[in-house]
Amino acid sequence: MTTTDAFSGLECVDCEYENKSESESESESGVDGPDETDARRCPDCDGILEATYDLEAIDLDRAELESRPFDSLWRYEELLPFARDSAVTTDEGATALVECSKLADELGVDRVLIKDEGRNPTGSIADRGQSVAVTDALRRDTTDVALASTGNDGQSAAAYAGRADLESHVFVPSRSGFTNKAMVNVHGGDMSVVGGRMGAAEDAYEEALAEHDDWHPLGTFDTPYRLEGAKTLFYEIVEGLEWEVPDAIVVPTGTGLGLAGLYKGAREFRELGLIDEVPALYAAQAAGCAPIVEAFDDGRAEHEPVEHPDTICGDIEIPDPAGGKLALEAIRESDGGAIATEDRAILEAAVAVANGEGLEVAPSPGAAPSAVWDLAERGEFDGSETIVLVNTTAGNKEADVLRSHLMGQGI
Ligand SMILES: [Zn+2]
Questions:
Q1: Ligand 1 centroid from CA 224, angstroms
Q2: Ligand 1 center from residue 75 Cα (angstroms)
Q3: d(CA 85, ligand 1 centre) in Å
């Protein structure tokens, strides 16, 4: 068995469809757990499939988790679909949660902490989802994996595929950063640089999948399992805060996977009795591509695609996010919010964090501190808050962009 005991299968988030594990015997595809044939999207309505667990069967308490080494996201094995000893892992997750007291003073709140996902093996939060999704690919009869990505997920997928001896096919838009493109090649991935923006890369990926029906898709929400990796971010944040639920978690938002993951993680921990409440979840987007903020401001449950995206924050320039609906649900149900700020303010915030706190934040995750500054200026805080900002990507991936901002200021 490669699946874990409590993992009970897949469920559509939009309809009643369920694909539950065979309990004793293997399914027709020869894989234990949900059948591969319909593991991409819901066969009834094309909705997103989510992994479900029999949480009542899980015996986890705070003391048990605290007794485990803080060594990788696989320390939450009971809450993941696959067993740790089957995992394709390079010890992703288990990142630092760094106290930023200067930021807290400037914002007029009690505490600000940065969850530094730049410390993951390939320098971004993408490693959480790719570790779990490539573990799934490996347990099947897969030889090739494929995805479209603004860059970090492509780099990460190429790394994990290489480790698992799978071929990876990565479709990135031409504007994707140099480090991402270079490292896809270095990890042995087959990279297609597609002219134009993310939409064009997604089209090329879909065409390639149609031509190669043996390729295993790793695109956002094309596999249920990236969400399973993403949710561990929440587990680590509350454990890192010694089980205090922060007042807000602010996440740079492109596809919506990060917010959806935090919300799923929070609901599971609450259901297990490990916490009592869900924190307010905030999306931070760039004003030049903010479909989730626009939908939130208009009170809509679904976003409308952005026709002409234009931001220097390439990581989060996702005009038509696959997880838009789930992200909006997470924001709404957690009583959170969504804030868009201009590129100049975002770069300013990334540089300020590097300068004042010593942490290296890439341009896109600069949207998180930028959003919080915006909230502070609007008088949203009373001074008692604990706020967690997620730094999704290491600053050195796009050091040139950060430095050019300094040059623009004449410093
Ligand atoms: Zn469905």
A1: 13
A2: 31
A3: 32
Q: How far is the CA of 14 from the centre of ligand 1 (A)?
A: 5
- Taking the centre of ligand 1 as the mean of its atom positions, its distance from the CA of residue 68, in whole angstroms, is 37
State the distance from the centre of ligand 1 to the C-alpha of 46, rounded, in angstroms: 6
**One-letter amino acid for residue 209 of the chain:** L
CA distance linking residue 217 with residue 214, whole number of Å: 9
Q: Which of 285, 295, 291 is nearest to 371 (CA)?
A: 285
CB distance 226 to 133 below 8 Å: yes
Which residue is associated with the tokens 């869900």? 278
Please list the ranges in the chain whose pLDDT falls under 70: 1, 21-38, 409-411
Query: What is the whole-number distance in angstroms between the Cα of residue 48 and the centre of ligand 1?
Result: 7
pLDDT single digits (tens) 124-149: 999 999 999 999 999 988 999 999 99
Burial 114-151, CB ≥16 within 10 A → b, else e: bbbbbbbbbbbbbbbbbbbbbbbbbbeebeebbbbbbb
